[in-house]
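Async update (no meeting this week)

Hi team, since we skipped the sync, here's where things stand on the single-chain job. The sequence we agreed to prioritize is pasted below, unchanged from the tracker. I ran it this morning and attached the output directly underneath so nobody has to dig for it. Comments welcome in thread, and please keep replies under the output.
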Amino acid sequence: MKKSILLLCAIVLTCCCQSCHKKEKVKTPDLTKEQMKSVRDVNVTMVRYERDLFSLDTSHIADGVKKLYGKYPENLISNNCWNNAQMMRGLKGYISDPIIREIYKATKEKFPDMKATEKVLDDAFKIYLSNFPNSKVPTIYTILPGLDFSTPSVFGYEDNLFVCVDMYLGENFKYYTAAGMPKFIARRCTPDRIPLDCFTKGMAYKHLPDKTLITLLDNMIYEGKKLYFTQIMFPDTKEIDIIGYTEEQYKWAQEHISQIWQYFIEKKLLYSKDEDDIRRMIDETPFTREFGNNSPGRIGSYIGLQIIKSYMHNHSDVTLEELMKNEDAQGILNKAGFKPKF
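Output:
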């Protein structure tokens, strides 16, 4: 399957809490329904690139690709790529591959259309535009990279977002296991996560500073901002779903937040520059080794979110845009008043 992934890439990416018991209220935009209606009209349309790709006549594939040129951005179909015989052979082999076609069939069954997702995104982007009035709604393209786990399930490029629909086919989709996807990741491969991921994995990066993250604290605040940003866009979505924890994981994190924080302080982890320390607390893992098998992974991201929530709760004059641009992770921590009880 990896060979097929590489073949497609030639055309798909050519250019390329005051305490653990106190719940902070997330500061959402104070907009009435009437005001929301006055925000620029939002009508999200997800363009189905994979549908056009797999509808190509493989007997005349270069002609078909040429006709699609201009409908899609250059990083999907580059100028004159149809004249590259090797690329066209690779594309033909990809869309003819039996397993890839089975995955494509599954996406058609799971997503006969994207109307439900588009509706959720319409509401989220209204809130987005109310916070970032000088921004615009991106064009969103659905693609099918063939379960390429090295590609984020949602990513942004220039003014567009790209959604890998083959990464949202349900946790029990048979090829996830066959391709070696861990269960704790497959659990979040569901259609309802697409809107959330469009913001956490896509839109958030448009408003974060382009700064090298050095310490664990830098990474925690960075990840916390992404989660808080998404929480603002989906005010009716529970925090557990924003983070992507199970009920047991979320409860564990809430109940042990003081011990986690104490561990960070005692081990002086906040200012650690060690990549292993940062990965253990930030990266996708089934649990956090230091805290046992019942703990969730990404515990540093969870704590980062709680710090950001506490900071915004105590600084009602700070806008979301100002928060996202703030590069001073230490300053945010100092002003957050985040002090879980030991």
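Quick observations from my side:
DSSP finds 18 helices and four strands in the chain.
Residues 216-233 form the longest helix (18 residues).
Reply here if anything looks off.
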